[in-house]
Design a protein that fits this description.
The complex is a heterodimer of chains A (121) and B (114). Chain A is mainly β. Chain A contains no helices and eleven strands. Chain B is mainly beta and 114 residues long. Chain B has no helices and eleven strands. Chain B is globular. The chains are: A mainly beta (121), B mainly beta (114). Chains A and B meet through strand 5 and strand 10 of A and strand 5 and strand 10 of B.
Chain lengths: 121, 114
């Protein structure tokens, strides 16, 4: 069974750093793109970026380029999303998603349960 | 960036009725690269339709997707139809294009119980 299990909720202060994780299981982690999607409170879905764990090829949405870093450790089948300096506007639910194959243009067929990040002073 | 506009914003219907949701793109999207997702409160979204009209694994056949345009391989207008609403279908639905970067989502249509 394919599963994406994300790390738990976080409460941080503005300016702090954070790294959240997404562990994949039940499939070949290195041959599927893994992405991140943001959902701000009461709002819609925004695609942040994506990584191919096999070779760490990473693509970002222009809206998130330079704001976050996406990485992966294929030895432990885990993808990461990190911030160096959080802002209150980073408060959101973050989902990791798997693309449905090794090709680049594919839908998101599996979603993690989400990680709620709250940034407040 | 391709902007997807969904309509209506909210659809108020009764169980058993037919729901028709629209997704319009600001520029042509290959019909192979349009998906629909369902999100229930407190849950992650799940894939319903991909390639504009193919149901994802385990999705009931009351859900169907279609696209329109002068070329069957592309278009700007897409539709998700739920033939007969079940109680579990009341949720928010998002369309997404994944044929160009950045991937973009529509703003969502909420299907609520009338």
């Amino acid at each position: 069974e394919v599963q994406l299990v994300q790390s738990g909720a976080e409460v941080k202060k503005p300016g702090e750093s954070l790294k959240i994780s997404c562990k994949g299981s039940g499939y070949s982690f290195t041959t599927y793109w893994i992405g991140w999607v943001r959902q701000m409170p009461g709002k819609g879905l925004e695609w942040m970026g994506i990584i191919y764990p096999g070779d760490s090829d990473t693509r970002y949405s222009p809206s998130f380029q330079g704001q976050v870093t996406i990485s992966a450790d294929k030895s432990i089948s885990t993808a990461y999303l990190q911030w160096s300096s959080l802002k209150a506007s980073d408060t959101a639910m973050y989902y990791c998603v798997r693309q449905g194959g090794s090709g680049y243009y594919l839908p998101f067929d599996y979603w993690g349960q989400g990680t709620l990040v709250t940034v407040s002073s | 960036e391709i902007v997807l506009t969904q309509s209506p914003g909210t659809l108020s219907l009764s169980p058993g009725e037919r729901a028709t949701l629209s997704c319009r793109a600001s520029q042509s999207v290959s019909s192979s690269y349009l998906a629909w997702y369902q999100q229930k409160p407190g849950q992650a979204p799940r894939l319903l339709i991909y390639g504009a009209s193919s149901r994802a694994t385990g999705i009931p056949d009351r859900f169907s997707g279609s696209g329109s345009g002068t070329d069957f391989r592309s278009g700007t207008d897409f539709t998700l139809t739920i033939s007969r609403l079940e109680p579990e279908d009341f949720a928010v639905y998002y369309c997404q294009q994944y044929g160009s970067s950045p991937r973009t989502f529509g703003q969502g249509t909420k299907v609520e119980i009338k």
